[in-house]
Design goal:
- This protein is an alpha/beta fold and 393 residues long.
- It has 2 domains: 100 residues, Roll (Urease, subunit C, domain 1), CATH 2.30.40; 259 residues, TIM Barrel (Alpha-Beta Barrel).
- Helices cover 36% and strands 24% of the residues.
- The chain contains 13 helices and 15 strands.
- The strands form 2 sheets. Strands 5-6-7-8-9-10-11-12 form an 8-stranded parallel β-sheet. Strands 3-2-1-4-13-14-15 form a 7-stranded mixed β-sheet.
């Protein structure tokens, strides 16, 4: 690697980045030349590189369509709020360390039952993101994914107040009412909720009953309002936690483009048949299954039912998962295709045609990573990161 590497994102450096390049169609040794924040040329061998998982790799920066982690920095302990801008700066550093150059911060719009404070924190978080972006305080580019809870009657008003913000790029419809989607077992959900909220059984069951009644009353009109606002602004719309063909059919009828975290093989197969982009959680793949008992991402991969890897609740997981997928001989996914699940595919799904690939003219968002763990690596070490041609790590 040659040339200066300033941290000032307003002054990208011209540079040559050499190594084993993960290109859109293959992995090959070569050199990427960066000028004025863009990839000016890619000079790569025609032959594939030997043993690409044994050394450093030059890849596009990760594009993460869904992380909930900014809210964890906002509440480092339950009931303990933190300054939104300070929380965002901590979150930015964590995303940077994951090799992510573009992140869609998943901000909850409304609440099911737990975390009702999300209604009050949404506005301050959006304000902090805009303030930080305007002041060039962030090393990763932060955009907003509004996650709309349809069982909350306050969701339409909260969405109307935030959807026109300059950083908003994605909208998803989600329903965390138990008995469907992510939590089909109402009794199990109630038990977990009681433990989390430190409620006795009677109070927990009463609250669950109230939520079910509220959801039956407001979910349909709330979902319709969310869908209409997203379409009115031309924003990509995602359906969250589809559990079967009926859910996917509803999403298709509403003009949804992306199926996010389908919970069953049936739902994923229906999404593929309908031509939807399928987003899977990278932590699910790395831990060997869903933490909530839903379909394993590895089972989806075995049927070719994953397009995009998102970090969900573990910020560094997309590159780790991509490397683990490429190293699994039973899956048969080549390295360049696995890396594209964390880079090119999410960029394309979000309509970001200027990034996500080591291609001439693309924005020079580039990561240097080294797989760790021998012939079957399941994690990476980030060696360097460039965003728009400026070295940020």
């Amino acid at each position: 690697m040659h040339g200066p590497t300033p941290l000032d994102r307003d002054a990208p450096a011209d540079a040559l980045i050499e190594g084993v390049l993960v290109l859109p169609d293959r992995v090959a040794r070569g050199v990427v030349r960066v000028e004025d924040g863009r990839i000016a040329s890619v000079d790569a061998d025609d032959a594939p590189a030997d043993a690409p998982l044994s050394g450093a790799l030059v890849t596009p920066g990760a594009v993460d369509l869904h992380t909930d982690h900014v809210e964890k920095h906002l509440f480092p302990r339950q009931g303990v709020p933190w300054d939104p801008l300070a929380a965002l700066l901590a979150h930015d550093a964590q995303m940077l360390g994951a090799g992510t150059t573009t992140v869609f911060d998943g901000l909850s719009v409304g609440a099911a039952m737990q975390r009702p404070e999300r209604r009050e924190t949404l506005g301050p978080l959006v304000d902090a993101l805009e303030e930080a972006a305007d002041a060039a305080l962030l090393r990763v580019e932060h955009l907003i994914h509004l996650r709309c809870e349809i069982c909350d009657p306050e969701t339409p008003g909260l969405l109307a107040a935030t959807i026109d913000g300059p950083l908003v790029r994605l909208v998803s419809v989600m329903d965390h009412t138990p008995g469907d989607r992510q939590s089909p077992d109402v009794a199990r959900w109630t038990e977990r909720m009681a433990a989390d909220m430190q409620l006795d059984r009677a109070e927990a069951e009463a609250r669950t009953a109230a939520l079910l009644a509220r959801s039956a009353r407001v979910s349909a009109p709330t979902r319709a309002a969310v869908v209409a606002m997203a379409h009115d602004r031309g924003l990509p719309l995602m359906s969250h936690d589809d559990a079967g063909a009926a859910h996917v059919g509803q999403a298709v009828a509403e003009g949804v483009a992306i199926a996010e975290f389908p919970t069953t093989l049936e739902a994923a197969r229906a999404a593929r048949a309908a031509g939807l982009v399928i987003v899977a959680g990278a932590p699910n793949l790395l831990r060997g299954g869903s933490q909530s008992g839903n379909v394993a991402v590895r089972d989806l991969l075995a049927e070719g039912l994953v397009d995009v890897l998102a970090s969900d609740y573990v910020p560094r997981s997309p590159f780790d998962a991509a490397i683990a997928i490429a190293a699994d001989p039973d899956l048969g996914v080549p390295l360049h295709a696995a890396v594209a699940m964390a880079t090119a595919a999410p960029a394309r799904a979000a309509g970001l045609a200027d990034r996500g690939a080591l291609s001439v003219g693309r924005r020079a968002d580039i990561a240097l990573i080294r797989p760790l763990g021998g012939p079957r690596p399941r994690r990476v070490h980030l060696r360097a990161l460039w965003r728009a041609g400026a070295r940020v790590l």
